[in-house]
Amino acid sequence: MEAVIAIVALLFVLFVALGVYATVKAVGAAKRGVDRTITQARRTVEDHTLRAKSFAQLGPAGELAQLRLKLRTSMRATQDALHAGVAEDESLKESLGLFQRLSAHGHELDAELKRLESEPDRTTLAERLPGLRERTERITQSADSLRWAARDRARRFADDDLDTLSAQIDVESGALRHWTKTEPTETPPPWPETPTVDGSTEQQTWPETPRSRTAEEPTRPAITPQGPRPTYPWQKKPRPESTT
């Protein structure tokens, strides 16, 4: 009886532990989903704000908004392209590692541009804009290069696969249409040449066949007929048969 109670208690504790684990996992997944949604919403709002500032504000403030928008757009597009491609092509892991190092410089530049948006000294800000513009161009060009290289690689693999598939389909189509191929036919024998007139009449020759050869040969009797017998002087002449 005590063993049964111990087994029931052990099963109860096991079920409680599994329930707690499942609850923690579900809460964690929900929290990550909520955080991801909040991050995307914040990013969308910030992008719209930067786009509005780039059109509404003039001078260094508007140019700072344009630089931030260009940097964020390029980095996000490259990140999405590499993460989507690494699932199908393992060789993109090294490119993803390079992009992560580039992202560190991008985040640092984005934070600096964001701090300079509230800079009251417009003269100093205007002096620093050429260097900020150059850094933004270098980072975005590197990101664009990685993104287009990954896309070209994926397109190249797709083209090779399409070429192979097209060749296989052509072979299969030819095999399915085998009855349309014309089989070689035997050519008939040529006709005899026209006889030439050289003052003497020549007969037209035809190709000799076994049947014509047998027709030209004379028919031979199967057994040679017996000829007349020779007569000798000592033989008696045959007497005529009497009618009486």
Shape: flat
Q: What integer is the average pLDDT?
A: 76
How does the helix and strand content classify structurally? mainly alpha
How many helix segments? Answer: 5
Low-confidence stretches: none
Percent strand equals under 5%
Tags for this entry?
244 residues, mainly alpha
Gist?
The protein is built from five helices and no strands.
Description:
With 244 residues, the protein is mainly α. Among the domains are: 1-56; 58-158, no CATH class. It has five helices and no strands. It is flat, with a radius of gyration of 54 Å. The N and C termini lie far apart (157 Å).
Helices and strands in order, then pairings?
Blueprint (H helix, E strand, L loop, with lengths): L1 H55 L3 H27 L5 H25 L5 H55 L33 H7 L28
